[in-house]
## 1
Amino acid sequence: MFVKLDDSFKEMKDKCKRTYKLGIRQRLIHEVAFPITWLFLHTKITPNQVTLLWGAIQFFSCFLFLKGNYLGILLALTIYQFAIFLDAVDGHIARYRKIQSFTGLFFDQIMHYITIPLMFVCLSIGVAKQHGSIAWLIVGFAATIIYVYTKLLTFNPFIYGISNVKDVVDILDSPDYSLRYSKNKFAVALFEWFRIEHPFNILFFTVLFNISHIGLVVHFLVFSAELLRKVYSQVRQLNKVDKKLRYESH
């Protein structure tokens, strides 16, 4: 069933925009996604249904990597990455309809945590088959494990029953914690070039130029560096919290 909108396309865009600044590539993704959002808003589709849609597209596209040839790998990655436009759409719809849902954010996060490791595992298998070497399978699997640990090694104060949780949670708001929200424009641009889901990123061009095995090595190194950076930044921020607590206790 179609729904009539009272707003113009421009008014719809204004209501759908995020309240914080985005990197250049992220802004381009949102601009491309707005026409899709406009179409979806004329239906009763929910943000969670859109999340499920792009998650399913990414999930099933991963198995095309297993063909182990150039065209199969390129097609799989193209489909996988272009689903990111729908990832922008679910947020657009939620903001337009003024839907605030932590469940929806968690569902979105789950989709990413399922599809990104799966994509890298399947890509590794495909590249290993394409080049006839198990070495690339090992590199890809290692990169996947490091990526997963980058997500796991996040300090969660809630599980310890800490009374002054806010002081600790503030580290998550620190620009040092995530390159995505860094005040350094170069760091943000660099981060976006290596975001797995983004179209025309470093991984895409290594696949396009048929050097996907080099792409696996590069991302193994990048994921390793990000893991070390994230652990270091958290320890540094937590030390600041510790010093503050010791000062206030005197």
## 2
Amino acid sequence: MRAVARLTPFALAIVLMGASRVGGLAAQESFGPPQAPCQLTQSNSKINNGIQALKTAVEKPDQRATQLAQARKALTDAIVQDGQSGNPAAWYYLGRHAVLAGDAAAADTAFARAASCGANW
């Protein structure tokens, strides 16, 4: 009988903990409606050069480091010098550069910036 008395509060605690987590899991099961893909306009020559450098970095592994450096320079120059800080394409491709360079924090920042200025461009 003592074993049952000791087990009951423990079992009750487990049941209560499990019940509190069910509500959280149910909330995660909802998805938003599908959205149309966004159209990125590359109206800037430096953004186009950055895109081309990223493409070359992927297609030619022997030129990867050089092309990634060129892509970063072209994209950051477009943002800083050409006033493209509101252009989501510049930030999106800068995020793609960060992914290829293995910089997760920079990729997250650039993709968030692209998403935040997407509707304004």
